[in-house]
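Below is a typical protein record.
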Amino acid sequence: MQAAHSHDHEHEHTPSAPAQAWVKTGLLLGLALYFLYNIVSGNLTNYINIRFSWLAYIAVAIFGALGAVSAYDLLRARRAEQAHDDHDHYHNHDHVSWPVLFITAIPLLLGTLIPSQPLGASAIDGNISTNVVAVSSMSTLGSDPLQWNVLDWLRAFNKSTNLAEFNNQPADVIGFVYREPDFAEDTFMVARFTISCCVADANAIGLPVVWPDNVALDDSQWVRVSGTFTLGAFRGQQIPLLVATAVEIVEQPKHPYLYP
Protein backbone atom coordinates (compact mmCIF):
# COMPACT_ATOMS: atom_id res chain seq x y z
CA MET A 1 0.00 0.00 0.00
CA GLN A 2 2.81 2.36 0.89
CA ALA A 3 4.54 1.74 -2.45
CA ALA A 4 1.28 2.32 -4.31
CA HIS A 5 0.68 5.53 -2.38
CA SER A 6 4.20 6.72 -3.20
CA HIS A 7 3.64 5.87 -6.86
CA ASP A 8 0.36 7.82 -6.95
CA HIS A 9 2.00 10.77 -5.20
CA GLU A 10 4.78 10.84 -7.79
CA HIS A 11 2.30 10.96 -10.66
CA GLU A 12 0.33 13.78 -9.04
CA HIS A 13 3.27 16.09 -9.79
CA THR A 14 3.99 15.01 -13.36
CA PRO A 15 1.63 17.51 -15.04
CA SER A 16 3.80 20.45 -13.92
CA ALA A 17 6.97 18.95 -15.38
CA PRO A 18 5.94 19.16 -19.06
CA ALA A 19 4.82 22.77 -18.55
CA GLN A 20 8.19 23.73 -17.11
CA ALA A 21 9.96 21.83 -19.86
CA TRP A 22 8.00 23.66 -22.57
CA VAL A 23 8.71 27.03 -20.95
CA LYS A 24 12.41 26.17 -20.73
CA THR A 25 12.41 25.17 -24.40
CA GLY A 26 10.66 28.39 -25.36
CA LEU A 27 13.19 30.45 -23.43
CA LEU A 28 16.15 28.70 -25.04
CA LEU A 29 14.77 29.18 -28.55
CA GLY A 30 13.69 32.73 -27.68
CA LEU A 31 17.21 33.63 -26.54
CA ALA A 32 18.65 32.17 -29.75
CA LEU A 33 16.23 34.24 -31.85
CA TYR A 34 16.90 37.35 -29.76
CA PHE A 35 20.65 37.18 -30.34
CA LEU A 36 20.12 36.36 -34.01
CA TYR A 37 17.80 39.36 -34.42
CA ASN A 38 20.34 41.71 -32.86
CA ILE A 39 23.04 40.38 -35.17
CA VAL A 40 20.92 40.76 -38.32
CA SER A 41 19.45 44.16 -37.35
CA GLY A 42 22.81 45.64 -36.34
CA ASN A 43 21.55 46.37 -32.83
CA LEU A 44 24.30 44.24 -31.34
CA THR A 45 26.70 47.21 -31.32
CA ASN A 46 24.27 49.06 -29.03
CA TYR A 47 25.27 46.63 -26.30
CA ILE A 48 28.83 45.37 -26.80
CA ASN A 49 32.17 46.25 -28.34
CA ILE A 50 32.15 45.09 -31.95
CA ARG A 51 35.33 43.09 -31.24
CA PHE A 52 33.26 40.72 -29.12
CA SER A 53 30.41 40.23 -31.60
CA TRP A 54 31.57 36.64 -32.15
CA LEU A 55 30.20 35.82 -28.71
CA ALA A 56 26.69 36.51 -29.98
CA TYR A 57 27.14 33.97 -32.78
CA ILE A 58 28.22 31.39 -30.22
CA ALA A 59 25.18 32.25 -28.10
CA VAL A 60 22.88 31.67 -31.09
CA ALA A 61 24.47 28.27 -31.72
CA ILE A 62 24.38 27.15 -28.07
CA PHE A 63 20.86 28.35 -27.22
CA GLY A 64 19.55 27.14 -30.57
CA ALA A 65 21.05 23.68 -30.13
CA LEU A 66 19.84 23.33 -26.54
CA GLY A 67 16.37 24.52 -27.51
CA ALA A 68 16.19 22.16 -30.47
CA VAL A 69 17.26 19.16 -28.38
CA SER A 70 14.77 20.05 -25.66
CA ALA A 71 11.95 20.47 -28.19
CA TYR A 72 12.84 17.14 -29.81
CA ASP A 73 12.67 15.35 -26.45
CA LEU A 74 9.30 16.90 -25.65
CA LEU A 75 7.80 16.07 -29.04
CA ARG A 76 9.11 12.52 -28.85
CA ALA A 77 7.54 12.14 -25.40
CA ARG A 78 4.22 13.47 -26.68
CA ARG A 79 4.21 10.97 -29.54
CA ALA A 80 5.01 8.21 -27.04
CA GLU A 81 2.07 9.23 -24.87
CA GLN A 82 -0.25 9.16 -27.84
CA ALA A 83 1.04 5.68 -28.65
CA HIS A 84 0.55 4.64 -24.99
CA ASP A 85 4.17 3.57 -24.76
CA ASP A 86 4.82 4.01 -21.04
CA HIS A 87 8.51 3.28 -21.41
CA ASP A 88 9.13 6.18 -23.78
CA HIS A 89 7.32 8.88 -21.85
CA TYR A 90 9.15 12.07 -20.93
CA HIS A 91 11.08 11.05 -17.81
CA ASN A 92 13.63 13.85 -17.47
CA HIS A 93 13.34 14.75 -13.80
CA ASP A 94 16.00 17.49 -13.91
CA HIS A 95 13.26 20.09 -14.06
CA VAL A 96 14.14 23.77 -13.81
CA SER A 97 12.14 25.48 -11.07
CA TRP A 98 9.63 28.21 -11.88
CA PRO A 99 11.64 30.91 -10.04
CA VAL A 100 14.72 30.09 -12.14
CA LEU A 101 12.67 30.18 -15.33
CA PHE A 102 11.17 33.53 -14.30
CA ILE A 103 14.59 35.04 -13.60
CA THR A 104 15.89 33.74 -16.93
CA ALA A 105 12.90 35.23 -18.74
CA ILE A 106 13.42 38.75 -17.35
CA PRO A 107 16.35 39.79 -19.61
CA LEU A 108 14.63 38.27 -22.64
CA LEU A 109 11.42 40.18 -21.90
CA LEU A 110 13.26 43.45 -21.25
CA GLY A 111 15.35 43.07 -24.39
CA THR A 112 12.23 42.37 -26.44
CA LEU A 113 9.94 45.04 -24.99
CA ILE A 114 12.42 47.92 -24.59
CA PRO A 115 13.53 49.41 -27.95
CA SER A 116 17.22 49.01 -28.64
CA GLN A 117 19.11 52.29 -28.77
CA PRO A 118 22.63 53.44 -27.92
CA LEU A 119 23.43 55.52 -24.87
CA GLY A 120 22.82 59.23 -25.32
CA ALA A 121 22.89 62.53 -23.45
CA SER A 122 20.32 61.37 -20.89
CA ALA A 123 22.69 58.61 -19.77
CA ILE A 124 25.55 60.99 -18.95
CA ASP A 125 24.02 62.83 -15.99
CA GLY A 126 27.03 65.08 -15.53
CA ASN A 127 29.61 62.29 -15.77
CA ILE A 128 31.42 63.36 -18.94
CA SER A 129 35.18 63.52 -19.22
CA THR A 130 37.28 66.29 -20.70
CA ASN A 131 40.22 65.08 -18.64
CA VAL A 132 42.51 63.88 -21.40
CA VAL A 133 44.63 61.94 -18.90
CA ALA A 134 41.68 59.61 -18.33
CA VAL A 135 41.57 58.64 -22.00
CA SER A 136 43.62 55.71 -23.26
CA SER A 137 46.52 56.76 -25.46
CA MET A 138 47.66 53.31 -26.56
CA SER A 139 46.42 53.51 -30.15
CA THR A 140 48.37 55.23 -32.90
CA LEU A 141 46.72 58.31 -34.36
CA GLY A 142 46.11 58.59 -38.08
CA SER A 143 48.19 60.97 -40.16
CA ASP A 144 45.22 63.14 -41.19
CA PRO A 145 43.75 65.12 -38.26
CA LEU A 146 40.59 65.81 -40.26
CA GLN A 147 39.85 62.08 -39.98
CA TRP A 148 40.22 62.05 -36.20
CA ASN A 149 37.20 61.48 -33.98
CA VAL A 150 36.50 62.84 -30.49
CA LEU A 151 38.57 60.10 -28.86
CA ASP A 152 41.50 60.70 -31.21
CA TRP A 153 41.58 64.40 -30.35
CA LEU A 154 41.58 63.69 -26.63
CA ARG A 155 44.44 61.27 -27.17
CA ALA A 156 46.34 63.96 -29.06
CA PHE A 157 45.76 66.45 -26.24
CA ASN A 158 46.96 63.85 -23.77
CA LYS A 159 50.23 63.36 -25.63
CA SER A 160 50.90 67.07 -26.00
CA THR A 161 53.07 69.07 -23.61
CA ASN A 162 51.78 72.36 -25.04
CA LEU A 163 48.06 72.55 -25.77
CA ALA A 164 48.51 75.93 -27.44
CA GLU A 165 49.97 74.06 -30.42
CA PHE A 166 46.42 73.11 -31.36
CA ASN A 167 45.38 76.73 -31.90
CA ASN A 168 43.89 77.15 -35.39
CA GLN A 169 44.08 73.39 -35.96
CA PRO A 170 41.08 72.38 -38.12
CA ALA A 171 38.84 69.54 -36.99
CA ASP A 172 35.81 67.66 -38.30
CA VAL A 173 34.08 65.40 -35.77
CA ILE A 174 30.75 63.64 -35.27
CA GLY A 175 28.96 63.18 -31.96
CA PHE A 176 25.77 63.96 -30.10
CA VAL A 177 24.86 67.24 -28.44
CA TYR A 178 25.32 67.46 -24.68
CA ARG A 179 24.73 70.43 -22.39
CA GLU A 180 24.74 71.22 -18.69
CA PRO A 181 23.17 74.22 -16.93
CA ASP A 182 26.54 75.82 -16.17
CA PHE A 183 27.64 75.87 -19.82
CA ALA A 184 27.92 79.26 -21.51
CA GLU A 185 25.01 80.11 -23.81
CA ASP A 186 27.16 79.66 -26.90
CA THR A 187 28.70 76.37 -25.77
CA PHE A 188 27.78 72.70 -25.98
CA MET A 189 29.76 69.49 -26.09
CA VAL A 190 30.04 67.12 -29.02
CA ALA A 191 30.06 63.85 -27.13
CA ARG A 192 30.56 60.13 -27.65
CA PHE A 193 30.56 57.08 -25.44
CA THR A 194 33.56 54.77 -25.34
CA ILE A 195 33.20 51.13 -24.38
CA SER A 196 35.92 48.55 -23.81
CA CYS A 197 33.70 45.48 -23.45
CA CYS A 198 30.02 46.42 -23.18
CA VAL A 199 27.76 49.30 -22.14
CA ALA A 200 28.35 48.42 -18.49
CA ASP A 201 31.81 50.02 -18.74
CA ALA A 202 30.71 52.93 -20.95
CA ASN A 203 32.50 56.24 -20.45
CA ALA A 204 31.24 59.56 -21.84
CA ILE A 205 33.82 61.86 -23.42
CA GLY A 206 33.44 65.09 -25.32
CA LEU A 207 34.91 68.20 -26.86
CA PRO A 208 33.58 71.66 -25.91
CA VAL A 209 32.18 73.46 -28.94
CA VAL A 210 31.60 77.19 -29.29
CA TRP A 211 28.62 77.77 -31.58
CA PRO A 212 26.29 80.78 -31.10
CA ASP A 213 23.32 79.00 -32.71
CA ASN A 214 23.52 75.92 -30.49
CA VAL A 215 20.14 76.73 -28.90
CA ALA A 216 18.56 75.37 -32.08
CA LEU A 217 20.09 71.96 -31.38
CA ASP A 218 18.39 69.33 -29.25
CA ASP A 219 20.20 67.27 -26.64
CA SER A 220 21.24 63.85 -27.97
CA GLN A 221 20.94 65.12 -31.56
CA TRP A 222 23.74 63.79 -33.72
CA VAL A 223 25.79 66.51 -35.39
CA ARG A 224 28.89 66.95 -37.51
CA VAL A 225 31.01 69.83 -36.28
CA SER A 226 33.65 71.56 -38.39
CA GLY A 227 35.88 74.32 -37.10
CA THR A 228 39.23 75.15 -35.54
CA PHE A 229 40.60 74.81 -32.03
CA THR A 230 41.39 77.73 -29.76
CA LEU A 231 42.86 77.30 -26.29
CA GLY A 232 40.37 78.66 -23.78
CA ALA A 233 38.68 78.22 -20.43
CA PHE A 234 36.06 75.54 -19.93
CA ARG A 235 34.71 74.57 -16.53
CA GLY A 236 37.76 75.89 -14.71
CA GLN A 237 40.49 74.49 -16.93
CA GLN A 238 42.39 75.54 -20.02
CA ILE A 239 41.67 73.17 -22.88
CA PRO A 240 41.28 73.46 -26.65
CA LEU A 241 37.79 74.68 -27.56
CA LEU A 242 36.40 73.75 -30.95
CA VAL A 243 35.16 77.03 -32.44
CA ALA A 244 32.66 75.80 -35.00
CA THR A 245 32.32 77.21 -38.47
CA ALA A 246 29.60 74.71 -39.38
CA VAL A 247 27.30 72.38 -37.46
CA GLU A 248 25.34 69.89 -39.53
CA ILE A 249 22.62 67.57 -38.24
CA VAL A 250 23.44 63.99 -39.28
CA GLU A 251 22.14 60.47 -38.84
CA GLN A 252 23.37 58.37 -35.96
CA PRO A 253 26.49 56.45 -37.06
CA LYS A 254 26.22 52.74 -37.72
CA HIS A 255 28.61 52.23 -34.80
CA PRO A 256 27.71 54.93 -32.25
CA TYR A 257 30.39 53.99 -29.73
CA LEU A 258 34.13 54.55 -29.90
CA TYR A 259 36.54 51.85 -28.80
CA PRO A 260 39.65 52.81 -26.82
